[in-house]
Amino acid sequence: MSERLHSPLALYDPRGRLAVSAYRYLLIRALLLGSGLLCLGIWLASLGLRWVGFLAVAGILPVMGATAIQTVRRLHDRNRGGGWLGLYVLAETVGVLPLERAVDTHPLPVIALVAAMLGVFVWFFVETVFRAGSPGTNRYGPVPAAP
Predict the structure, then answer these.
(1) N or C: which end of the chain has fewer CB within 10 A?
(2) Which of 78, 73, 82 is nearest to 133 (CA)?
């Protein structure tokens, strides 16, 4: 029983390192689970069960939290601190700003901001999804075992 409880709770532990193959597998599972919860919530709301649908969609929040914590572990495998996730979150936040209002009056700063935002997205995606971890033991622990 304790092993069954340990596995889901381990998703919320930011200590240690996470190999790139395990991270890819985790991302696929998180995307499928989040999409499934969203579809379930929409379906339930269309049946008139709006609060139950809302609760189903709210189930995406723990999935996002676990994915963020595992992303920190993946950054640890690249010998980077979890603070690098903050740069990505900042770029995501800039992505929801109403920049179309400022394009007419300040086009060059908006273009520079969007280019910087896209650069952060591409860098972060390549850093976490494609690059192998640092060789040997680093400050976050030993090389993670293959999944």
Answers:
(1) N
(2) 78
**Could you tell me the pLDDT band of residue 30, with boundaries at 50, 70 and 90?**
very high
Residue with tokens 């395990």: 22
Burial class (CB in 10 A: 0-12, 13-18, 19+), 99: middle
Please work out, in degrees rounded to the nearest 5, the angle formed at the alpha carbon of residue 138 by the alpha carbons of 134 and 144. Answer: 65
Q: Closest by alpha carbon to 67, among 116, 133, 147, 129?
A: 129
**Three-state helix/strand/coil letters over 13-79:** CCCCCCCHHHHHHHHHHHHHHHHHHHHHHHHHHHCCCHHHHHHHHHCHHHHHHHHHHHHHHHHHHCC
Mean confidence (pLDDT) of the chain: 89
User: Is residue 76 a contact partner of residue 18, using CB atoms and an 8 Å limit?
Assistant: yes
Find out whether 144 and 77 touch, Cβ atoms under 8 Å.
yes
- Could you give the 3-state DSSP secondary structure of residue 138? strand
